[in-house]
Amino acid sequence: MKRVALFFGCWLALMAAASAHVVTQLYAESKGTPEAWSMEVLFEAGFAVPAVREDPVAAAPDRQWLLAQGQEGWAVLRTEAERYLRECLAVESAGQVVQWKATFIDFDSDPPAFPVLLTNGAYLRIKVDPVNPVAEPVTLKWAAGEGRPTFILKTAGSDGGYLTLEPGGSGAVGGDVVEESQARGALLTSFRQGFLHVVPEGWDHVLFVLGLFFYRRKWRPLLSQSLAFTAAHTVTLGLAAGGIVKVSGNWVEPVIALSLVAVALENLRASKEADGRVRLAVIFGFGLIHGLGFAGALSVWLKPGDGFLPSLLMANLGVETAQAALLAGAWILTIGWNSTPAYRWVRLAACLGIAGIGSWWAFERIFL
């Protein structure tokens, strides 16, 4: 009974935390030279809206929302975005605070040229330049605070490295002084982001993987489903992230939600005589859609160019590692009572819970 209670506790915690993709990072790229440092921040507009920023499960606004704000709304967003960025970011050089200015480069054209991403997210591009030219190296400090996003800066140079700052962190960039404790190579960053976009940030993908587990607690069907899902989303992740396939998140995200419903309810009719080939075809089809979802979440920083293929493969490996960890965790947690009546009730409740959450998300993503 303790194991049953532990399983239910974990499940209830997951249900309470369940939310769709929520942006938890801000990305930037160094744009200057060693003699005159600067960077460009891809600022998610939700952080410029206090009601969204302060709600950990609020859905991020989309690009259509941003376009509909008009001149008056854009002025408010620019003011709030710069205020929030200044609150979070401090720049130092040679131990001295560097004063910097913010330029909203999307507004160089009319109408504004807001970035178009697979996520259909609302983003502003902010150029950060020192008031007086500052040579590298510089130290960036990212303020601590509940709900603060992680700041990820792609550093200049051929190494394609990244500086990752958690809230309260700092790190130096430029020259030969990048702090090893803070700087991550492109491949390690790709792996990390792939993992994080499943656990703990991609609850729809977490629930889909658990839906695979509750089909049948045997390693052969689990492995075959996992491989089918992997093969499918690897294809569309690569095509979408590479810009070969372009789709709107307006239909990808609702279909992902509906995939939870389909897989969970199909679990309830599964039997030992069920045709596994049909199940694999279903999983492969939904895997293609989930691959577009992964690409949408990763497209902010994973772009074609030098090192694209290795970074893509490492991001996918991160996704698969998270998926394997989920399946292994569920397997271990159910050892010893998977053939009892209690487990059958847990499985039923879990599948109905996944279907219920998927139904709500589908409704929310289509109508709200």
Account of the protein in words:
- The chain has eleven helices and eleven strands.
- The chain has 368 residues and is α+β, with helices and mostly antiparallel strands.
- It has two domains: 2-20 and 197-367, no CATH class; 25-185, no CATH class.
- The strands form two sheets. The protein has a seven-stranded mixed beta sheet. Strands 4-3-7-10 form a four-stranded antiparallel beta sheet.
- Strand 1 and strand 2 (39-44) form a beta hairpin.
- Helix 6 crosses helix 10 (308-333), helix 6 runs antiparallel to helix 11 and helix 8 (249-268) runs antiparallel to helix 11 (341-367).
- Residues 4-8, 10-22 and 177-183 have low confidence and may be disordered.
In short:
The protein is of the alpha+beta class. 50% of the residues lie in helices and 14% in strands. Helix 7 packs parallel to helix 9 (276-298) and helix 8 runs antiparallel to helix 9 (276-298).
Give the tally of β-strands: 11
The domain tally reads: 2
The geometry reads as elongated
Content-based structural category: alpha+beta
Strand count, sense and barrel status of the largest sheet are: 7 strands, mixed
What fraction of residues sit in β-strands? 5-15%
Number of helices: 11
Distance between the termini: 41 Å
Assembly of the depicted chains: single chain
Low-confidence stretches: 4-8, 10-22, 177-183
Can you give the helix content as a percent range? 40-55%
Over the alpha carbons, how many angstroms does the gyration radius reach? Answer: 22 Å
What is the average of the pLDDT values?
A: 82
Lateral arrangement of strands in the main beta sheet: 5-6-2-1-8-9-11
Q: Write the H/E string, N to C.
A: HEEHHHEEEEEEEEEHHHHHHH
